[in-house]
Amino acid sequence: MNALSNSLNEALEQMPGCVFVGYLDLSVGMVLGSAALGEIPEELQENLGVSALNYLNGKSVRALAESLGGSSESFDEALVAVGGATHVFIRLPERPNHVLCFMFPGEGDPRPLLQIARQTVESFSLPDFLE
Q1: C-alpha torsion 38→45→116→108, nearest 10
Q2: Between 3.30.1480.10, 3.30.450.30, 3.40.50.720, 3.30.70.100, what CATH number should domain 3-125 receive?
Q3: How do residues 87-110 score in pLDDT, each as one tens digit?
Q4: pLDDT per residue over 29-43, tens digit each?
């Protein structure tokens, strides 16, 4: 297991109810690494990369951010409930093109999920080769 896999597995263990943690690169819309409880189909992982790109960097998102008085660049977080699951996407502060994606089954109250995800991002340690 490599250093990124170790970091992602640690993040998954910190997240009660989380079934998937992915490390995404927005510059290419790709999942660079992941940890999961059980099998997560590759197609779903690829879709998460594209989704993160659209939710955090898409043209309509930039327009929405600007209309709300923010910068026209993008958002740092997105929370999406779709297909019986809740996905949380959060940019890494030190790597704005990189995102952690968390997937939770069900569509419960998203506030605790977002709070736990934020705490996990704060404590997430990038492997040296990614810094």
Answers
A1: -80
A2: 3.30.450.30
A3: 999 988 888 889 999 999 987 788
A4: 888 999 999 888 888
